[in-house]
Amino acid sequence: MQKILNYIDGQLVPPISAQYLDNYNPATGEVYSFVPDSDERDVAAAVSAAEKAFSDWSVTPAEQRSRILMRISELIDKNLDQLALAESIDQGKPVSLARTVDISRASSNFHFFATGILHFASEAHVMENRAVNYTVRAPMGVVGCISPWNLPLYLFTWKIAPALAAGNCVVAKPSEITPMTAYLLSDICKEAGLPAGVLNIVHGLGPKVGDAISKHPKITAISFTGGTKTGAEIARIAAPMFKKLSLELGGKNPNIIFADCHYDEMLETSVRSSFSNQGEICLCGSRMLVERSIYDRFLNDFVERVKSLKVGDPLSEDTHQGAIVSKQHMEKILHYIDLAKKEGGKIRCGGDVVKLSGRCQNGWFIAPTVIDGLSYDCRTNQEEIFGPVVTLMPFDSEEQAMTIANSTSYGLASIVWTQDLTRAHRVANLLKTGIVWINCWMLRDLRTPFGGVKNSGVGREGGWEALRFFTEAKNVCVKL
Ligand code: NAD
After folding, report:
1. Which of 41, 84, 154, 307 is the most buried (most CB within 10 A)?
2. What is the pLDDT of residues 128-187, one digit of tens each?
3. Strand runs (DSSP E) across 100-147, as ranges?
């Protein structure tokens, strides 16, 4: 069976422990490859390689760094089908989604930062005839990037690309649950001519490899995407060492539907924003707040649409919803469905596992689930489930909708549906989330700052924010 390897100092190498973890295909429930069970020794080797590479990479002209990153983007495009297949098998998402979203956006990430770095400028501030200040933005050194399993290559490259573009060397850890596309990226980086040690990928468990990245004194900044609890643990370790931190964490996003919305478009997009990638996107709307005058109509129409989603083999082109990423995560989701019932929720559709036949008979599938009848402050409506489960709640006024929307400890994204322009802006201003979508979802210009507030994280990714994060600003003041 295939053994995934670490990518350290330009070489594909086994873990020092020589131990491996099982890597499952969630659609079949079978182990299909092995992941290195690396530890702090592999992280130390990666940091040494990165340190060694930094002296050259940090002074490599931006145009040359840009060309290499552009080449990586082109090679991702060239291998799009192979990468999409790998991601679908590893993560359980429909292969069509992997192709159109994850992998193509991973290519865009490299493309975007390869061009961005060419325009990343220093600022100067002139104090009339007394002095001129200029700001030098230098790369940080060796930085850590830790990513989750839900959009494996997309989120991995969203961190790595700006870090490399800005002239840093990187020690990166993909999720141990979905390591395959990061492994394939190692080969692409070699082919693209990325110098040895500039990017190092260490596979393995969070409490071993991730923890060693957080603790390593030579790693000066960490960009992390994952659960809120893990983010808190990384901050606990890294903050006293004064590491720069960007933490992109969990969410419990409201999808707020006013009666005056463009109904058909709202319905169509709400199905997608609830159940894309089995609801395993941090930006999915998981709490639907619907104005009471259209509540019954919406409930009927929405449930009818959701029932028609095809849960099936992720490799079939007509599958809408694939497998849940792991058995453990499936059990967590089922536990929440059970909790919702105990809290008085009505299951309007779904609510259980789906047993497929043939190749996927032992896979981990859950029917898209719609629940209503719950109070907004119950656990089901406050805690992140991160699966194909949404709740519906009616509201009577804009004020009540805002109270419910802002009631959780999270603050990642909100979705609002209304044709009233003034209300759209007012509500966007009142929502305590880092992202607000009005009459759309997942539309994003990569130049905009991305991230959450409250327990959804600190720091911003995307555009100049990411390039600033991965650089240190030094101000030089020259007396005239
Ligand atoms: P997770 O926190 O369990 O793992 C994320 C990464 O951290 C993995 O690589 C994991 O191995 C590593 N890790 C685990 N324990 C660690 C430790 N002690 N020290 C260092 N690293 C450690 O999260 P997950 O289950 O992989 O992903 C799902 C979560 O990610 C959800 O909460 C989701 O909302 C969140 N997410 C957020 C965003 C965002 O942009 N805000 C995007 C995607 C996912």
Report:
1. 84
2. 999 999 999 999 999 999 999 999 999 999 999 999 999 999 999 999 999 999 999 999
3. 124-127, 131-139, 142-146
**First-last CA distance in the chain:** 68
Nearest CA to ligand 1 atom 39: 248
Whole-angstrom distance, CA of residue 294 vs CA of residue 272: 20
Asked whether residue 472 falls in the same domain as residue 330, the answer is no
Listed in sequence order, the residues at least 6 apart from 63 whose beta carbon sits closer than 8 Å to its beta carbon are: 118
CA 459 – ligand 1 centroid, Å: 16
The answer to whether residue 451 is domain-embedded is no
378 is catalytic: no
121 and 232 in a single domain? The answer is: yes
Best of 282, 383, 412, 414 for a ligand 1 pocket test (most atoms within 8 Å of beta carbon) = 282
DSSP class of residue 250 equals -
Distance of CA 376 to the CA centre of its chain: 26
Query: Are 346 and 460 found together in one domain?
Result: no
Q: Which residues contact 78 (CB under 8 A, 6 or more apart)?
A: none
- Let me know if 248 is a catalytic residue: yes
Distance CA 359, CA 363 (A): 8
Structure tokens at 470: 């991965």
Cα(406)–Cα(434) distance, integer angstroms: 12
Asked if 215 and 347 sit in the same domain, the reply is no
The reply to whether 419 and 463 lie within a common domain is no
3-state SS assignment for residue 477? strand
Cβ(38)–Cβ(202) under 8 Å?
yes
Calpha distance 436→285 (Å, rounded): 11
CA of 75 to the centre of ligand 1 (A): 27
CB 213 within 8 A of CB 222: yes
Question: Could you give the CA distance from residue 434 to residue 253 in angstroms, rounded to a whole number?
Answer: 11
- Half-sphere exposure of 58 toward its Cβ, with a 13 Å CA cutoff? 19
CATH code of residue 288 = 3.40.309.10
Contact 308, 316 (CB under 8 A): no
Q: How far apart are CA 68 and CA 114, in angstroms?
A: 8
Q: What is the pLDDT of residue 122?
A: 86
Q: How far is CA 367 from the centre of its chain?
A: 23
Range of the domain at 112: 2-249+456-479
The verdict on residue 184 lying in a domain is: yes
Residues 59 and 110 in one domain: yes
